[in-house]
Amino acid sequence: MIPFGDLKREYSDLAQEIDKIMQEVCQSGWFVLGKKVEQFEEAFADFIGEGVYGVGVGSGTEALHFALVAAGVEHGDFVITVPNTAVPTVSAISFSGARPLFVDINDDIYNMDADKLRELVVAGKKRLGKKLKAVIPVHLYGQSADMDPINEIAKEFDLNVIEDACQAHGAEYKGRKVGALGDYAAFSFYPSKNLGAYGDGGIVITGHPDEARKLKMLRNYGQEKRYYHKIKGFNSRLDEMQAAILLSKLKHLGDWNNRRREIAAFYNKKIQNAVVTKPFEASYGKHVFHLYVIRHPERDKLMSYLDQNDVQTIIHYPVPVHLQESYRELGYSTGAFPIAEKFAKEILSLPIFPQLKDDEAERVAGLINSFN
User: Domain 253-370: which topology?
Assistant: First the structure.
């Protein structure tokens, strides 16, 4: 079986390094909000770029939630995002008490269509006024959304921009890393991410030191020092073990991203099935291929064919959020976002991870070419 991902291979490469780190944390006797968290927050912020601050939290979803709260989003407000994202993006909006609004995607890079965003914001501001608070562009699959027009629209209409960079560790837009392009950004360190922990974890990035202080209070019951609570907060803390593991793995991220790009280039060259639509890399940025997503009009048959030939694939994502049962109350129906809905029936994610072997990628490409 060629796995979709294989974290056992990664651990095998890093076992000596990781085991030493875990033992050090256990021997320290400090497990929550210690020196390793501080060191990782600083290191990851430096990785993103100058003048930004990182605040470690319990997951990428909570990173988005806290960014929304810090931005002043409250119950009854509205937040715009895309319908083809993972449900956790929209869960964070729900956690804040706000209501999600969706805008369709473009037909090449699967990210937010800025022209459609402008149409929605113009209409939304007339109807909702100051209740329309923020926009969450999602850097889906490892490629940045086109941020300049999104930021221009947000500035014009006084909206906060919160980047969902949970799939885009190290991706770039016009020479800058995602995470430093909006008012806030959220990253996930779920184990399968380009930079993954050995459990849940996340971080909020902001360019404002006062906002970083607020976020640190939000994650820890609203206290600035122990038992002195300045604001109402939550419990969502990146623990020392995960921070130590992430700090160690961060130095490998560049090489791992390069390997992902290498595999993607191999697939681009070797997959010659004329019916398959391969990923498009926008000229403005650098794709880090958290996922390598193709499209095929008979996706389910192709997926079954690959499975029968011992190749594991996954669909990211089979049902757009606006059509999920859990969000039925929003009132959207089939046809509301035609591009996202069409692609949901065609997309298929192929195996891509740094430890994937060349002969495995060759076999995947060959099987796709033989499918008709």
Answer: Aspartate Aminotransferase, domain 1 (3.90.1150)
